[in-house]
Predict the structure.
Amino acid sequence: MNAWACAVCWCVCVSMRVLSVDASWWYMRYMSSVGSRVMCDNIPGLVSEQRRLCRQHPRAMQAIGAGVREWISECQHQFRDRRWNCNTVARDHSLFGRLLLRGSREVAFIYAISSAGVVDALARACSRGELDWCSCDPRKTGSWSDPAGAFDWGGCSDHVELAARFGHAFVDAKERKEPDARALINLHNNRAGRKAVKRLLSLECKCHGVSGSCSVRTCWLAMADFRRTGDELRRKYERAVHVAINQYGAALTKSSAAGRRASPGKNQLVYSDDSPDFCVRDHDTGSVGTGGRRCNATSQGADGCSVMCCGRGYDTARVSRSAKCECKFHWCCAVRCGDCSQTEDVRTCKEHT
Ligand SMILES: *[C@@H]1O[C@H](CO)[C@@H](O)[C@H](O)[C@H]1NC(C)=O
């Protein structure tokens, strides 16, 4: 090989190394329901244990794939008026691109909600009877009691425990294989996500008895709407704790100014790296910037133009919409409306120059 070819080769290797963020099971968002074997082999980034589970449980994988679309849209809802809005990167096998290179709060949230999303999707698929290895929680039979008195288990209790066990086996497989510092952080956040789903389980009951006297109740354990899981994890994101790996490299400890070291709580989200400010497009941090994002001129919060646009200013466009108005009922029988145009000022952040 001549020197020039060598130089090209070296260059390609180096840039590939710098650019690549590991693919992950999150890519199952794009999964189609073609033959399961083909499908499992074509998802980039699955580790061998995940591939094994994929081949063994194709229908669970379909639920997980549909779940990815759901937790991503929940993530985007939670952060819709923030600089970082949970944007995904097109044609990227890790979905979030270089953002994932650091263990920031945002990445902590992504891990937690993705893991929660798997539990939610699987448990719902179990309850609908779509999976052969699980169904409604079979232990919820007979009589029981709560502070309001005795009741009978009835209906379908979501089998969150089984779903969480499968989620743990599937989602954590990659990090368990190479348990470095970042893996410990990811595993902690994955578990916090599963725990959030469990904590939001609640008892739902139906009353029976003479004229709704509720002398007899049948109850079941139901998962909360995934929106509530998103809300809960969003609160955990706000209170996420900064951690370091202890000297044995085996456990996380909270970094505190007082020098006191303690383990973070199992329900807390943990992160190791500060977040970028997400103001401008930055290839290294995976930030796409806030240029072109819509902002609110009167809000003092994160969606306000000064915060959202990072002081770069904004453009205002007067947008008019036509709407039906002054509708009148004419005898008989028609409703006639006028066309009114409403104007609205839409403000968008200026691009970074
Ligand atoms: C802008 O923010 C203000 C104050 O927070 C709020 O009352 C208003 O509804 C917001 N406008 C839009 C279009 O979201």
In short: Residues 1-19 have pLDDT under 50 and may be disordered. Residues 295-349 form a domain with the Endo-n-acetylneuraminidase fold fold (CATH 3.30.2460.20). Residues 101 and 188 are 17 Å apart (CA to CA). The chain has two domains: 3-143+153-202+226-288, 295-349.
